Amino acid sequence: MSDYQKRRIEMELRSFTSKNFEKPSDCKNLDQIRFYVKELCLKIENLEVNGQYVPQWAYALLAQYNDRQNSMIHLEFRNMYC
Fold first, then answer.
1. In the 3-class helix/strand/coil scheme, how is 5-72 assigned residue by residue?
2. Largest CB tally within 10 Å, which of 33, 34, 52, 68?
3. How many CB atoms lie within 10 A of CB 40?
């Protein structure tokens, strides 16, 4: 894959996430985070299935959403049972 194609994929993915997603730290709703995780997983999977380049920051962003989701679930669980 050429550098041009990698840059194009990266720019398209950045544009998509910046227009449609909030930063993980700004998310206050568990359903919202779950939606973002699902959408980002679909984007990454689509790139992988087609044998295309997936920027490392996309995996890092997914990890941030997962961390935020886990924190919210833990807090919700603690509030329910403690």
1. HHHHHHHHHHHHHHHHCCCHHHCCCHHHHHHHHHHHHHHHHHHHHCCCCCCHHHHHHHHHHHHHHHHH
2. 33
3. 21
